[in-house]
């Protein structure tokens, strides 16, 4: 406790040096130390940005924490990429801590996902489950401030925790402040009262200023979860003694009276008093109190001198290396059956579940009764059991974000968002937690997740079941985006996406699932063998131009994906031999080599998408093509997409008017060829 208090004092006295924003645990030390001391190395934890005392209690040294404070190269958490007290750790001597973001409350979903994963590994008796030397079961500690509890995602996580009886402790540190927003302004109940609505959540209230009480409470909470495998909430009332952060100063918004009330609850003098009461010698306490400042000051000097990260490391660890880098296995088995895209996806997932016991598949309605609203998961729950294939509540944030936790404990999740239009509630977790995990943990925690997303418009699906989302997804760095257009690609890419140690979003066009849309029969292919894999980032020449027309300089290429492949093929029948069509298959990573070399070959390119065009992926690609292929271009780069409307209207006449179709594509080809 002395160390934590002293560290906060040194940071405050050296604000010019501690230039990166940071928060300290001043006031919260007792509960944090009580928690950190009693976790075991086989446990998991999600501390928040104010938890530096907890980290010290887990065994991180002041020097290690200061390396992150000063964003130094050897910061063991992020290598100088993230803020103070944003830990991630795979140290076998300490609880496992996956990447922690700054977003308040958002860690509750990934950490509940860890508990979900532990529960699954326990149920299947997986040897990969971390346990203690005597087989002690692991628990998850999720720590958060009271201000975060009102966030919607917390309720998604708590609902899942009680529903599935997950082994997790939610430690809420209640200092009655958000930043300047007070408890009275922001809530009608505290976390303890709120948790009562989550039936099955055990609850404890604790005086967070009283170390002894905290120690007993945390010991009891951890013991309960370790034994009973059920969630518990510990609500600790704590004072806030420091500033909100180094940048947001307490005197700007807190009254003298409030500060005095909080100061009276400082756990440090209270602990000192208690130690003397129980017979600890004053001289021993004085020795700690005089040695600690010297030690902290020396460590701070040492951290100041530590090396900064080098510039050449800035782009390290965006992704972990891909597992599949070459096409392998039999794509065209001679005795293979023809298969629709939806079944190719289903069979791919089935084969994955057969081969990898740590693979699970969940989402809305993918479980036993329905097997997915597109029957894309039909029979899977029957075959693999409700443990492995199951329904979730309507909780897109949980469906997406829990996979960060599942991945951290070694489960391999496949999840589904029912319609692309509903990915937005899950988008926060995708961006805030998942996409940044590998980079900000300096490569320690890539998130292996496969997120299936049925997408696309056809036949009057209407404004909330037809939307395209790829450009939105493609602005996110740290995720991969796949968009197959036929059954064979679907199967090979699904396997590669699953095996990829990084987050992959698989966009699956609903209009191609059964090839119901006229002209899309090409999406039905012979089913590749179960060993077939297709690496992400490899495009395909759907049809080449005729060499004769190419020689005459009378050709163009179409760069497209998804439904665009079929519009382009239909339109190209008007220009025999003159059109080469490329199916990108993966939108990120992009097959730049194929795109640029094809454009250079033809000098004319149309980039075609189903998406609204303005500020889209396709427009960005057009810019890159102009820059890279400028000298080879014989015409401006053409783009064609849907009209820039906020949604796809339900009436099919309006839907057709909005979307590209073979006629519109043919008109663009005609104009481009005439250049
Ligand atoms: C999602 C999100 N919104 C806003 C912020 C900005 N912010 C940082 S800390 C904070 C207050 C958090 O209060 P609480 O959870 O009670 O924790 P405390 O800082 O009081 O320990 C806010 C609003 C954020 N980090 N994340």
From TrEMBL:
Gene3D superfamilies: 3.40.50.920, 3.40.50.970. Pfam families: E1_dh, Transket_pyr, Transketolase_C. Signal peptide: none annotated. Its EC number is 1.2.4.4. CDD domains: TPP_E1_PDC_ADC_BCADC, TPP_PYR_E1-PDHc-beta_like. Residues 339-515 form the Transketolase-like pyrimidine-binding domain. Residues 75-94 are annotated as: Disordered. It is an enzyme of class 1 (oxidoreductase). Its cofactor is thiamine diphosphate. SMART domains: Transket_pyr (SM00861). GO terms for molecular function: branched-chain 2-oxo acid dehydrogenase activity. GO terms for biological process: branched-chain amino acid catabolic process; response to nutrient. E1 component of the 2-oxoglutarate dehydrogenase (OGDH) complex which catalyzes the decarboxylation of 2-oxoglutarate, the first step in the conversion of 2-oxoglutarate to succinyl-CoA and CO(2). This is 3-methyl-2-oxobutanoate dehydrogenase (2-methylpropanoyl-transferring). It comes from Chitinophaga ginsengisoli.
């Amino acid at each position: 406790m002395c160390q934590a208090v002293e560290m906060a004092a040194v940071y405050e006295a050296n604000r010019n040096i501690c230039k990166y924003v940071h928060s300290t645990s001043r006031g919260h030390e007792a509960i944090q130390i009580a928690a950190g001391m009693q976790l075991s190395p086989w446990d998991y934890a999600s501390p928040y940005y104010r938890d530096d005392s907890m980290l010290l209690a887990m065994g991180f040294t002041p020097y290690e924490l200061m390396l992150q404070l000063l964003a130094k190269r050897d910061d063991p958490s992020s290598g100088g990429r993230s803020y103070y007290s944003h830990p991630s750790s795979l140290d076998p001597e300490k609880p496992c801590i996956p990447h922690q973001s700054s977003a308040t409350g958002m860690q509750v979903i990934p950490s509940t996902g860890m508990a979900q994963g532990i529960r699954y590994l326990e149920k299947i008796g997986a040897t990969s489950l971390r346990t203690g030397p005597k087989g002690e079961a692991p628990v998850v500690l999720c720590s958060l401030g009271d201000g975060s509890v009102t966030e919607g995602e917390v309720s998604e996580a708590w609902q899942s925790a009680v529903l599935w009886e997950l082994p997790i402790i939610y430690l809420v540190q209640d200092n009655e402040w958000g930043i300047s927003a007070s408890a009275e302004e922001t809530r009608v109940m505290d976390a303890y009262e709120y948790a009562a609505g989550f039936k099955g959540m055990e609850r404890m209230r604790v005086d967070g200023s009283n170390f002894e009480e905290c120690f007993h409470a945390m010991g009891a909470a951890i013991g309960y979860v370790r034994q009973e495998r059920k969630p518990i909430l510990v609500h600790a009332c704590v004072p806030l003694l420091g500033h909100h952060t180094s940048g947001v100063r307490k005197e700007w918004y807190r009254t003298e009276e409030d500060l005095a009330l909080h100061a009276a609850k400082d756990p440090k003098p209270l602990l000192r008093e208690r130690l003397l009461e129980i017979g600890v010698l004053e001289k021993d306490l004085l020795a700690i109190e005089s040695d600690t400042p010297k030690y902290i000051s020396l460590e701070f000097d040492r951290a100041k001198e530590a090396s900064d990260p080098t510039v050449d490391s800035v782009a390290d660890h965006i992704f972990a290396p891909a597992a599949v880098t070459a096409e392998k296995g039999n794509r065209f088995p001679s005795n293979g059956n023809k298969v629709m895209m939806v079944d190719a996806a289903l069979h791919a997932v089935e084969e994955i579940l057969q081969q990898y016991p740590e693979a699970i598949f969940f989402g809305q309605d993918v479980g036993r009764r329905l097997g997915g609203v597109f029957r894309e998961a039909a029979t899977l729950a029957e075959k693999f059991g409700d443990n492995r294939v199951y329904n979730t509540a309507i909780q897109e944030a949980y469906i997406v974000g829990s996979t960060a936790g599942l991945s951290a404990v070694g489960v391999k999740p496949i999840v589904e968002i029912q319609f692309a239009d509903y990915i937005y509630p899950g988008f926060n977790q995708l961006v805030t937690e998942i996409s940044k995990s590998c980079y900000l943990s300096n490569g320690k925690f890539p998130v292996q997740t496969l997120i299936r997303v049925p997408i696309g418009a056809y036949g009057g699906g209407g404004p909330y079941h037809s939307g395209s989302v790829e450009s939105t997804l493609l602005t996110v760095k740290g995720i991969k985006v796949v968009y197959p257009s036929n059954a064979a690609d679907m199967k090979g890419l699904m396997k590669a996406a699953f095996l990829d140690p990084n987050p992959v979003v698989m966009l699956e066009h609903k209009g191609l699932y059964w090839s119901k849309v006229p002209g899309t029969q090409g999406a039905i292919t012979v089913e590749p063998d179960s060993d077939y894999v297709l690496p992400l980032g490899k495009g395909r020449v759907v049809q080449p131009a005729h060499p004769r027309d190419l020689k005459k300089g009378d050709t163009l290429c179409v760069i497209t994906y998804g439904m665009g492949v079929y519009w382009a093929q239909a339109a190209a029948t008007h220009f025999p031999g003159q059109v080469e069509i490329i199916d990108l298959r993966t939108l990120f990573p992009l097959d730049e080599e194929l795109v640029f070399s094809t454009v250079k070959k033809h000098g004319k390119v149309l980039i075609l998408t189903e998406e609204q065009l303005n500020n889209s992926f396709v427009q960005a690609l057009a810019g890159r093509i102009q820059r890279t292929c400028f000298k080879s271009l014989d015409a401006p780069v053409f783009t064609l997409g849907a009209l820039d409307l906020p949604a796809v209207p339900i009436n099919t006449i309006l839907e057709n008017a909005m979307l590209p179709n073979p006629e519109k594509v043919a008109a663009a080809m005609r104009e481009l060829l005439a250049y």
